[in-house]
Amino acid sequence: MYKKLKLAILANENHDDHQLWLAACEKRKEEVEYEIIDFTSYDWLRLVNESHAEVFVARPPGISSLFKQLYDERIFILATEMKKRIYPSLMECLVYENKRFLSYFLQAHNIPHPPTRVFYSRDEALNFCRQSIWPMVAKTNIGASGSGVRVLNDLKEAEKYIQASFSGKGSPKRWGPNTSKGNWASRAFYYVLHPGKIKDKLALYARKKSEKQTGFVILQEHVPHSFEWRCVRIGDSFFAHQKIAMEGKASGTLLKGYDNPPLDLFDYLSKLTEKLHMHSVCIDLFETGSGTYLVNEIQCYFGQSDPYQMLVDGKPGRYRWFNEQWVFEEGMYNTNHSYDLRLGHLLSIFKKKLK
Asked: How far apart are CA 297 and CA 103, in angstroms?
């Protein structure tokens, strides 16, 4: 018999973001007790100090740089100064939706990735572009589903992008519907059935539109690709599928390939996540053609449009390392957008037996 694990879910400014954690906890309410703490509140420290939680479950935001900075600063204090247990880990939270920070992190660890440069000087950025090979990729620091990714095809496009980034206009970024997703009929029908969600969606678009990145640019070497590998590790469960590229980028297209992933991909993923001490992440990888991989993104939370993250011979499941080999286990391990698996991983780490 086990005692219940006491959790505190650290909610961000978006009320919907922590709902999947609530659903996961409700499914296992015989094993967990949970509370919700508004981590954006002015008295968040009091709320944390009054909590009896053994683990603080983080759900960092991914839309507003203002609230992302707020969340990162507070989670840093919680983990390092107050010595609280955090899930996902502090570093997994800090690299989430922070491409600028991620580029420094990968360089510091000598992890192969597309060369990425962050410029806080307009003149430096322009001079760099005048000596560059095209195309090039420009990214905003925050922005999921490829909303802040833009392929620059020549110097003229780069100069226009840089000038906007260092003016009040800000770096161009998609803030409305993602037209590359498709499935317009089913998406429209969803809002017919849930009219109250229309107001929420419009409010989300307004927040995205108001988010301007000024004063710096992130420029990345373009890696020709027809797909990225979306690799997921949650505890001892490993998954991978292809994100198919459209118009030069794979992020946000929702086009997937479910061919059997190569096992050496999981060898690489396992070694990388162990090196970085990251055990609840998804990592997007480019293949180089020479048997190596380049890290493009690391996220502790990710979108999931299908009920699974991998198919092997057409069957959903996961890979686990067992008896010195990768073993495929058929099953639906990504229910509730993989939050059920996250909670299972968390319980495996922190749950203690009653004596």
From this structure: 9
